[in-house]
Amino acid sequence: FAFYDNQKVGQLLSRITSDLFDITELLHHGPEDILISVIKLFGALIILMNVKPQMALLCFAVVIIMLIYALIYNKKMKSAFKENRVRMGEINSQIEDSLSGIRVVKSFGNEKREKFRKGNERFVDSKRVTYRYMAGYHAGMDAFTTLITVTALVSGAMFLAAGDLSATDLVTFLLYI
Hints:
The chain is mainly alpha-helical. Helix content is 93%, strand content 0%. It has six helices and no strands. Helix 2 packs antiparallel against helix 3 (53-100), helix 2 (9-51) packs antiparallel against helix 6 and helix 3 (53-100) runs antiparallel to helix 5 (109-161). The longest helix is centred in the C-terminal third of the chain and has 53 residues, at 109-161. The termini are far apart.
C-alpha cells in the first residue's frame, strides 16, 4: 500500500494505459514481424550467396551497420518515450487533482491554468524530441536500405565489367535485395 500512497492516480493511470498499449502492439505485431524478417533476411542471404558471395557480403556489411544504427536510435527513442510517459503522467495527475478539487480550482483558477499550461508545454517539448528521434531513425533506415541497393549496383557493375558476373545474375541479385 505504501507504493500506492506515494503515487498520484494520474501517473498510475498513464503508466497502465501506456504499458497495456505497448503490450498489445507487441503481441499483435511482434511474432509475425520477427518471423517474416528472419525468413526474408536468411532467405535472401542464402540466395545471394549462391549468386555472388562477394556482393552478398558487401550488402550484408551494410545491414550490420544498419543494425548498429537501429540499436543506437532504439536506445534514444526508449528514453524519449519514457520521458513522454512521465510528462503525460504529470498532466493526468494535474487533471485528477483538478477534478477531485473542483471548488478549489474555481477559487484559484488562474494559478491552476498556468500550472497546466507549463506541464503541457513540457509534454509537447518531450514529444518533439521523440518525433525528432523517430524521424532520424526512419530516415536512417531508408537511407541504409537505399545504400544496400547502391552497393549491389556498384559492386555488380564492377563484377560485370570484369567479366566475373553475368547480367542475368546481376538482375537476380537485385531482385532479392
